[in-house]
From TrEMBL:
It comes from the Bacteria. Residues 1-21 form the signal peptide. Coiled coil: none annotated. Pfam families: Cytochrom_c_NrfB-like, Paired_CXXCH_1. Residues 206-248, 255-293 form the Doubled CXXCH motif domain. This is DmsE family decaheme c-type cytochrome. It comes from Stenotrophomonas mori.
């Protein structure tokens, strides 16, 4: 991408006169909209101007009928739609060019449907049983929204599991303040399917997602990524450093499991232990530290402060009473992560 941009700049620099400049410009592949590669930063943002009807593979012969015809039968839907981002932009484009597709930019040409509305597949329906294959549904949306965050949609776990854009988006009505999601918030949208994950955020210790300060898409890109779990960054730790930058270091004395993965000790979506820990201290530490100067004793109620043989590894904050810098230390005398 950078290389291509550099070529563009170089080509522009070489161009002797403005007249020659267009001949030097890099030729983009033909697409439905010349601007649909904008996600890559080549061109202006995708617009509504001169939009064409989407392709309905079930009715290649169908002709566009215009928005007035749709609205005559679908008054309620048209009224709801009128307040959305798409409708506002489409009205402007329609005023400039009356042949611009609006409803049909997503639903495909409507003549077959207007003639026989109950025939399955006569119009692109964004459902799993409406007679339109999911690939045909997403193709229409991607005509304007390919690239950028959706570069890896094809082959992503959601695409492979037959999700359509409309499983998370409902452009027919402004249900959410932004993003046209099917539910009011991003997290509730995801929770229509990932109930278990949303449930974990109700545990005693959790990051403030139920409180609305962060959402699933702070860490995940639901449109697909190049890694397995739809993380926006290459590694788990990079994700955490976005907000917990102080844990990145560099540290004079590192703690090996922290460098490897935060998930060695933390449960990201919620935990019933203090501070999202996977196990309570001292057991958390003893999973790995069994042959140190502090033997891997079995801790019982006797080891509690009120017990017969109080043990400092259970009292107070346990191991981290003394080893307070468990994420790494920058103190010259901190090799044991004490300070
Ligand atoms: C003559 C009236 C009429 C016109 C014109 C019409 N529709 Fe419909 N449409 C209907 C009826 C009736 C249904 C319900 C069909 C059913 O329940 O099987 C429907 C259903 C639909 C559905 C849901 C399909 C499904 O399988 O879930 C969509 C989407 C739709 N119309 C979009 C449009 C669009 C876009 C236009 C304009 C291009 C349009 N309609 C024009 C009468 C019409
Ligand atoms: C940006 C793309 C887009 C545009 C433009 C659009 N629709 Fe839709 N439409 C959808 C999607 C996606 C759904 C499925 C929503 C869902 O999940 O229920 C839908 C659903 C529908 C339905 C089925 C009933 C419903 O509400 O679920 C009708 C009818 C309909 N649209 C009519 C229209 C009409 C009429 C217009 C123009 C005034 C229009 N649509 C413009 C994407 C679009
Ligand atoms: C004719 C081109 C076109 C088509 C087809 C189209 N969109 Fe859009 N869409 C746009 C434009 C332009 C915007 C506004 C972009 C902006 O303001 O940054 C937009 C905005 C959006 C937004 C962001 C809304 C917000 O509040 O920020 C979502 C989500 C979206 N579209 C989803 C869809 C889905 C899903 C479909 C298919 C059902 C679809 N679009 C079809 C052109 C299109
Ligand atoms: C698994 C759920 C899910 C699916 C499937 C999905 N999206 Fe999204 N999409 C989201 C969420 C969540 C957001 C973020 C909304 C916000 O920030 O408020 C979003 C944002 C967007 C936006 C606006 C911001 C941006 O990234 O430019 C567009 C446009 C969009 N999606 C288009 C699509 C299209 C096209 C498809 C189908 C190919 C699709 N989405 C499929 C969940 C989904
Ligand atoms: C319509 C249902 C549906 C919705 C809505 C949905 N997902 Fe998914 N998601 C799935 C399915 C199905 C899978 C693949 C099955 C599995 O392995 O769990 C999946 C997989 C995932 C995975 C990868 C799991 C793995 O093991 O690699 C992540 C991460 C994910 N979804 C995040 C999200 C986020 C974030 C949202 C909201 C923006 C969302 N999903 C919305 C159905 C959905
Ligand atoms: C603070 C960042 C963050 C937030 C917020 C977040 N996740 Fe995750 N998610 C992760 C990480 C990290 C993983 C584990 C990745 C790995 O093991 O490689 C993960 C894994 C997953 C998985 C697959 C593994 C599993 O546990 O089943 C799903 C599905 C998932 N997340 C969905 C969601 C949903 C839905 C939301 C919102 C309710 C959400 N996540 C919020 C960071 C986050
Ligand atoms: C989008 C920002 C964001 C990302 C990304 C993020 N966090 Fe957080 N995290 C927060 C916020 C906000 C808090 C609450 C801070 C507070 O209350 O002072 C928090 C709190 C925590 C806490 C303390 C919880 C408690 O109960 O005291 C832990 C542990 C934590 N995060 C671990 C992680 C890990 C591990 C990752 C990477 C998988 C991660 N965070 C990614 C925003 C984020
Ligand atoms: C070896 C286990 C371990 C690993 C690995 C680990 N942590 Fe922690 N973390 C802890 C313990 C123990 C606490 C609780 C400390 C306390 O109670 O004082 C904690 C607390 C936290 C807190 C809340 C208190 C604070 O210090 O701000 C955040 C945020 C946090 N960890 C983020 C991270 C991030 C980000 C990573 C990965 C870079 C990570 N942790 C890796 C053990 C670990
Ligand atoms: C996933 C395994 C793992 C967990 C869990 C873990 N550690 Fe470690 N820890 C290590 C490794 C590996 C080293 C590096 C050992 C080395 O360099 O010889 C280390 C080093 C240390 C050191 C420095 C020791 C030295 O010899 O330099 C201290 C102190 C320490 N850990 C304390 C803790 C405490 C306290 C906890 C619990 C909050 C904990 N560790 C949890 C794996 C773990
Ligand atoms: C009362 C304070 C205190 C508590 C509580 C404590 N430690 Fe230590 N720890 C020390 C001291 C002091 C050293 C030795 C430092 C040195 O020799 O440089 C040490 C050394 C270590 C070392 C390095 C051992 C070695 O052989 O070099 C590890 C690992 C360690 N502790 C883990 C733990 C774990 C795990 C717990 C909880 C089960 C724990 N500590 C609880 C004070 C404590």
């Amino acid at each position: 991408m950078l290389l291509a941009a550099a070529v563009l700049v170089y080509a522009a620099w070489l161009a002797p006169t403005p007249a020659d400049a267009s001949a030097q410009a890099v030729k983009l592949p033909e697409t439905r909209f010349a601007s649909s590669l904008s996600g890559h930063g080549f061109d202006a943002p995708p617009g509504f101007a001169d939009a064409l009807p989407a392709r309905n593979p079930a009715h290649p012969e169908a002709k566009a009928v215009s928005e007035q015809v749709c609205s005559a039968c679908h008054t309620q839907e048209s009224d709801n739609f009128a307040h959305t981002v798409h409708a506002l932009g489409m009205q402007v484009a329609l005023a400039a060019n009356p042949a611009t597709a609006t409803c049909e930019a997503c639903h495909g040409p409507g003549s077959a449907h207007a003639a026989n509305p109950t025939a399955k597949g006569s119009i692109i329906a964004f459902t799993h049983d409406g007679g339109t294959p999911v690939a045909a549904q997403t193709e229409g949306c991607l005509g304007c929204h390919s690239g950028g965050p959706r570069d890896a949609w094809l082959g992503s776990i959601h695409q492979r599991n037959d999700l359509s854009c409309s499983d998370c988006h409902n452009p027919m009505q402004a249900f959410s303040a932004e993003g046209l999601t099917t539910k009011q918030s991003v997290s509730e949208t995801c929770a229509t399917c990932h109930k278990d994950i949303r449930q974990q955020f109700n545990r005693r210790s959790h990051m403030p997602l139920p409180e609305g300060q962060i959402s699933c898409v702070d860490c995940h890109n639901p449109h697909g990524t190049l890694n397995a779990t739809l993380l926006k960054t290459d590694t788990v730790n990079e994700t955490c450093y976005q907000c917990h930058a102080e844990k990145r270091g560099p540290f004079l004395f590192e703690h090996a499991p922290v460098r490897e993965s935060c998930l060695n000790c933390h449960q990201v979506h919620g935990s019933n232990q203090h501070a999202l820990l996977v196990a309570p201290i001292p057991m958390l530490c003893q999973q790995c530290h069994s042959h140190t100067r502090h033997p891997n004793d079995l801790m019982t109620e006797l080891s509690l402060g009120t017990g017969g043989a109080p043990d400092e590894r259970l009292m107070g904050r346990g191991c981290v009473t003394c080893h307070a810098q468990v994420h790494g230390s920058n103190h010259p005398s901190g090799p044991r992560l004490h300070k």
